[in-house]
Amino acid sequence: MARRAEPPDGGWGWMVVLSAFFQSALVFGVLRSFGVFFVEFVAAFEEQAARVSWIASIGIAVQQFGSPIGSALSTKLGPRPVVMTGGILAALGMLLASFATSLTHLYLSIGLLSGSGWALTFTPTLACLSRYFSRRRSLAMGLALTGVGLSSFAFAPLFQWLISKYAWRGALLLVSALSLHLMACGALLRPLSLTEDTSVGGPGAQLTSLLHHGPFLRYTVALTLINTGYFIPYVHLVAHLQDLGWDPLPAAFLLSVAAISDLVGRVASGWLGDAVPGPVARLLMLWTTLTGVSLALFPVAQAPTTLVVLAVAYGFTSGALTPVAFSVLPELVGTARIYCGLGLVQMIESIGGLLGAPLSGYLRDVTGNYMASFMVAGAFLLAGSGVLITLPHFFSCISASTSKPQDLVIEAPETKIPLPKEEGLGED
Fold first, then answer.
1. Measuring CA to CA, how many Å separate 289 from each of 70, 138, 210, 333, 370?
2. Surface-to-core class of residue 308, CB atoms within 10 Å of its CB (0-12 exposed, 13-18 middle, 19+ buried)
3. Prediction pTM value
4. Integer angstrom CA distances of residue 140 from 15, 31, 285, 326
């Protein structure tokens, strides 16, 4: 395979998009739909909402905190074996959770074991995708991450039906079987060599440069704040609607409505990210602000129609911010450092994922309702959008992608260096 001077913006990259599509569905689609299990766990173990909320929070935090491990392994071994191993761990965690007799068992199985599997799948796949695209990066990210929206639409009512049919233990067994398909996603990943790779040094040198890079650190702070409030509706919206007198199945269906809107938002945002002039960070700030406002309005709404409108608004804006959030990072650190950069970002923002849902559950236990929970979640997103304004070129009319990353990347020559071709492999 030839070492390319720049990403091909296509080719096998579209197969990587397909892999990322199913992988995002089987990781965050499952996580987003886990709210239907929340009520079952509260009833089965007779625990407070705050303690049960730690199950999803630990899973999200381990997925993000373990991302540097997945990134480092992918740098050494390539993303394919790493992602396939992650699929086995994710499925094994769900399998063991079906035999749980206490919340501690669920913390260890879903939170720790499945979370470790997700850490080995999500970051390496998106990092590999970022290296295949430059001009079409936002669109590719948007298409790949639509898997989250589609699976959320399908999984929430599906999981509720499985629980009603087989109870929560049987439903977890089937979720385990679904998670094994992450191995097929990993098999589609093919590493890509870029001439820029030779100028960035090893993982240690990359880590040192990133920790001294101001825009990267500010961006990490912004995503940590966003992450603290981002997942709250997917953990507590069903419980909030049941507090308002909704039946479990219609409440789960409202998550599906948000998921449809999320799907549209991801594709629209991916297209706008490549079509609209100016830095992608500006679009990210817009979508983050609108998501925070919609979250803060949830406890104010009482009528079913108003709640549906808010679910559509939240789904669209929260879906729209995701592809541009991943597109900003390569502009800041360069594609050669994307494995290390994305892994480090995911690790630091895990603080928000770890604290968000338990904080929301604690506020519910203290106040007796979810009003403070949703308002505080919205405030975290608005704070994150404020930090995004400080990024370089934010008020510039020229996209940051047209310039080299700030103080990091040495521009690579426009040449291709042929490497020895392995027998049986065609050209890229």
1. 31, 19, 27, 24, 21
2. middle
3. 0.72
4. 11, 22, 20, 11
Q: Spell out the long-range contacts of 37-43 with Cβ–Cβ below 8 A and sequence spacing 24 or more.
A: 37/159, 37/163, 37/168, 37/171, 37/172, 38/235, 38/236, 38/238, 38/239, 39/238, 39/239, 39/242, 39/248, 40/163, 40/168, 41/103, 41/106, 41/168
Instruction: Give the other-Cβ count within 10 Å of 204's Cβ.
Output: 9
Residue 69 in tokens? 């491990």
> pLDDT tens digits for 238-283?
788 888 878 777 887 887 788 788 888 888 888 887 777 767 888 8
pLDDT above 80: residue 201:
no
Residue 12: burial class (beta carbons within 10 Å; 0-12, 13-18, 19+):
middle
Element (H, E) at 62: helix 49-65
Q: Collect all residues with Cβ–Cβ distance below 8 Å to 244 and sequence separation of at least 6.
A: 302
Alpha-helical segments (H) within 231-368: 232-243, 248-275, 280-297, 304-333, 338-367
- 352's CB contacts (< 8 A; 6+ apart) are 223, 224, 225, 226, 227, 228, 229, 230, 380
Three-state secondary structure call for residue 417: strand
What Rg do the C-alpha atoms of the chain give, in angstroms? Answer: 21
Side-chain half-sphere CA neighbours of 152 within 13 A = 28
Q: CA 243 to CA 241: how far, in whole Å?
A: 5
pLDDT band at 3 (very low <50, low <70, confident <90, very high): low
Among left, alpha and beta (phi > 0; psi -120 to 50; other), residue 276 is beta
